[in-house]
Write a structure and sequence with these properties.
The complex is a heterodimer of chains A (about 260) and B (about 280). Chain A is built from nine helices and no strands. Chain A is mainly α. In chain A, α1 runs antiparallel to α9, α2 packs antiparallel against α3 and α7 packs antiparallel against α8. Chain A starts with a helix and ends in a 5-residue tail after the last helix. With about 280 residues, chain B is an alpha+beta fold. In chain B, strands 1-6-2-3-4-5 form a six-stranded antiparallel beta sheet. A three-stranded antiparallel beta sheet of chain B has the order 8-7-9. In chain B, α1 crosses α8. The radius of gyration of chain B is 20 Å and the shape is globular. The chains are: A mainly alpha (about 260), B alpha+beta (about 280). The interface between A and B is medium-sized, with 22 and 18 residues.
């Protein structure tokens, strides 16, 4: 399952992300780090989308895994496009952040429903009744995450001066915990078998994605977020994990691919 | 009624004769017109199929290889003149033998063994059937017999022996063993890929599906001989359909194909035929 291609993919993104640590040592400033970080984020999302679609294409028509992986790819792509818009705005406005909410937020927000629906398709396809611990864990995680999200978004909610801004914050508050809960519930369905392995990578990626979102939100609320900081690495690494999941799934069907 | 397949009605009657069945057997075919045959201590005594009775009725249904049947024991035969069943069987197997490898190709997979009935006068009188009976001895697969004869020469005496109850044909040592080997290879593949949470419901659904059609039959044991290959068709189809229902049909189909690759080309083709809709 861990083919040369998978190992190369993991190494490639770890090296790209690791360069962010080296840039200050090499004498590059904050702006260069910001540009580089945004580039890595956009590239990781676009590459992962392509990897997910490749995996989708090897499943026969009518197989639930086909739309499932296509939706995963679509979700990651929407995030990548959102990030590209965000980065473009920053570049063309001399480092100034885009207003909130902006068009980039459409991309950021679309990833959650896409992946949520993908996970529902996955869970329904398996047709396994989730274990009690899985349901309980999902409920606890959703409640905890909603509580955490509301607390960390307090300042943003107070700052919201338009209905659209308020709705965007609300969407971030609701979508992330629901996606996280669905991730935990789906993870509880598979505990053994080769198919479980890619899913654990996928779930790890989604949890890292959630933690990155929360960290970004907290730092932004505290006005401590700096583009190009280490927190930016959470997203590319999360997409790398989802990409690895897609590659392993592909390799199950095509063991001699690499 | 239980289905039968890849066994001629004549063979079914022979199987019932071999176990000294006494009672009525109702057979139903695609034309929905039932055929009823009575068996007693004297053998097959009466038959009815629509307006046809006895010889005419049996001539119409003798070579049908598929349908449904029901056995009702201890039913007395009609009080009308009976038939000379063995004389009819001799004529049908000698002069009206269908092209077996075309009508019922799966019959080439049967395992033949002697029933224990004492040899009838007709068999003793025929050198060919007596010789064949001797070669069958304690049991032999048809493919083993075929290596000694041209297939065309074999079916006529073999069908006579089957229909007269001297020998019985079973698919258990051939198709049953083949499917067991196949399933034994398939299940660990499913577990390896999907995990035990998916494997256990899969195994249960196949076994429950079989129990619905064949109550009390476990694939490890031979089914009722008069059902022919029908239980094995059901078993193979259930494996394939339940695999398709695992939720990830592409991966399930891969497991199925990988297990087929472990078998010989001929065996893989047979299992594909059994599992095909």
């Amino acid at each position: 399952m861990y083919t040369k291609g998978t190992i190369f993919y993991i190494s490639f993104w770890i090296v790209l992300c690791g360069l962010l640590f080296i840039l200050p040592i090499l004498g590059f400033g904050e702006q260069a780090a910001s540009y580089y970080s945004n580039l890595v984020q956009v590239l990781s999302a676009l590459t992962t989308a392509v990897v997910c679609w490749r995996t989708s294409s090897v499943f026969e028509r009518g197989d639930p895994m086909r739309p499932m992986w296509a939706l995963m790819g679509m979700g990651v792509l929407s995030w990548g496009l959102g990030q590209a818009l965000y980065a473009g705005y920053v570049i063309f406005n001399q480092g100034e952040e885009p207003p909130y909410p902006w068009f980039s937020d459409i991309g950021f927000l679309l990833i959650q429903p896409c992946i949520f629906v993908a996970l529902i398709i996955f869970a329904r396809a398996l047709d396994i009744r989730p274990p009690a611990w899985g349901i309980l864990a999902a409920v606890i995680v959703v409640l905890g995450a909603v509580f955490f999200a509301i607390n960390s978004s307090q300042e943003n909610i107070q700052k919201a001066d338009t209905l659209i801004a308020y709705l965007a914050i609300l969407a971030y508050v609701i979508f992330d915990p629901v996606l996280l809960g669905m991730t935990v519930l789906s993870a509880s369905l598979l505990t053994s078998g080769m198919l479980a392995l890619p899913w654990w990578f996928c779930f790890a990626g989604l949890i890292l994605y959630y933690l990155s979102n929360r960290s970004f939100e907290i730092l932004t609320a505290q006005e401590q977020y700096v583009s190009g900081g280490f927190v930016d690495l959470g997203w590319p690494l999360a997409y790398m994990l989802i990409g690895v999941a897609a590659m392993i799934t592909y390799n199950i069907l095509h063991p001699d691919a690499d | 009624m239980v289905p039968f397949r890849d066994i001629f009605v004549g063979q079914i009657l022979g199987t019932l004769l071999a176990r000294r069945y006494s009672g009525m057997v109702t057979l139903l075919f695609d034309d929905r017109m039932p055929a009823v045959v009575w068996l007693g201590e004297e053998g097959v005594t009466h038959a009815k199929y629509g307006d046809f009775i006895n010889d005419e009725a049996l001539i119409n249904v003798f070579w049908r290889p598929m349908g449904k049947l029901e056995l009702i024991q201890k039913v007395p035969p009609p009080k009308t003149p009976g038939m000379d069943y063995l004389f009819l069987v001799e004529g049908l197997t000698r002069n009206f033998l269908p092209q077996v490898d075309r009508v019922c190709p799966m019959l080439e997979q049967v395992y033949i063994k002697r029933s224990g009935l004492p040899s009838s006068q007709e068999i003793k009188a025929s050198i060919v059937t007596a010789g064949l009976l001797a070669r069958i001895s304690s049991g032999i697969a048809y493919t083993g017999l075929r290596t000694m004869d041209r297939a065309g020469d074999l079916w006529s005496p073999l069908m006579f022996l089957c229909a007269s109850g001297q020998v019985v044909c079973s698919y258990h040592p051939t198709l049953g063993r083949m499917l067991m080997v196949f399933e034994k290879d398939l299940l660990p593949r499913i577990e390896k890929l999907f995990g035990h949470k998916v494997l256990n419901p899969f195994v249960n659904s196949v076994r429950e599906g079989l129990q619905t059609i064949w109550p009390g039959w476990h694939p490890e044991d031979p089914p009722e001989l008069q059902s022919g290959a029908a239980p094995y068709y059901n078993w193979a189809k259930l494996i394939k359909t339940r695999l398709g229902a695992l939720g990830i049909p592409t991966l399930a189909a891969r497991c199925f194909e990988q297990s087929l690759e472990k078998l010989s080309t001929t065996e893989a083709k047979i299992i594909r035929d059994l599992a095909s809709p």
